[in-house]
Queue: 3 jobs
Job 1
Amino acid sequence: QVQLVESGGGLVQAGGSLRLSCVASGRTFSNYAMGWFRQAPGKEREFVAAISRNDGIRYYADSVKGRFTISRDNAKSTVYLQMNNLKPEDTAVYYCAARGGVTARRSNEYDYWGQGTQVTVSS
């Protein structure tokens, strides 16, 4: 089992920045590819970004490319999502997820999920 705990969400004005963190425990963090997903009210959960086990590969959704950066620190068992130039449409609950394989973009390919952290962007 892998336990994931997100933090760093909050309320920010449009154009602002936030950095989300997700701390993992329970298994060897470097064995897992990590992803960030988000879910807005009334919408399906959508892919945001993903990073491979050794940080050699990073994927982004088109909607966040150039604004968000995913990174990881295997020594700290933590994955980050730096979010810049936030827009009201980025408002959602953000989830981190882990999978014991190669990097993936589909939520059903991930094995473990955190509880989520709310990000609200005001206009």
Note: The chain is about 0% helix and 50% strand.
Job 2
Amino acid sequence: QVRLAESGGDSVQVGGSLKLSCAASGYAYSGGHYCLGWFRQAPGRKEREGVAIIDYDGRANYANSVKGRFTISEDKAKTTLYLQMNSLKLEDTATYYCVADCSRDLLPRGVGTWGQGTQVTVSS
């Protein structure tokens, strides 16, 4: 069973930085597929937005809205996923979810497992 536990959410000011972590267990490369990632859901929005994903070889894909500001990474043991967020903007305020079994197109329909989420609030 895949288990995902996010941490690191906080309140920060515009322009600040934050690093999210996700402890992942029970997920492994299988059938030529491996994908971990981060999604977010902004206040008042129904849909969750793909932020970044990483595959088994460490190749990442980012939403245009976060390119150049966010970096997704994974520890060597592939047990912890990270999201380094720099130059945070008001519009980055959201609940951030760690996901497993995702797809490079960053669409929520492709996600197999969701974490519980961690709140990030950016204020001016």
Note: The CA atoms of residues 82 and 99 lie 12 Å apart.
Job 3
Amino acid sequence: QVQLVESGGGLVQAGGSLRLSCAASGRTFSRYTMAWFRQAAGKEREFVAAISGSGGSTYYSNSVKGRCTISRDNAKNTMYLQMNSLKLEDTAVYYCATTPDGLGSSTPNRFDYWGQGTQVTVSS
């Protein structure tokens, strides 16, 4: 059974930083693309960033490119999202997900397992 558990969310002032983590189990972690999505209140879930199984390739949404870095440690079965220069509009629940597809999938329905989410709130 695949399990994804996010952590690291919290309350931060605009301009600050947070690092999210996603601990995975139940799947050969290094074989699968992983991604971060987010969902703000009243909005649809949106893609944030993805990373290939090896960690050698990454892909970002335009809204976070240059401010966020996705990474993974396959020895620890853990993925990360370092978020810098946070903005009010980054406030959302952040989810990690995994897909058997290659890097490039950015629609939620291509991801077969999801974590429970971690809240990120950016204040002014």
Note: The first strand starts at residue 3 and ends at 7.
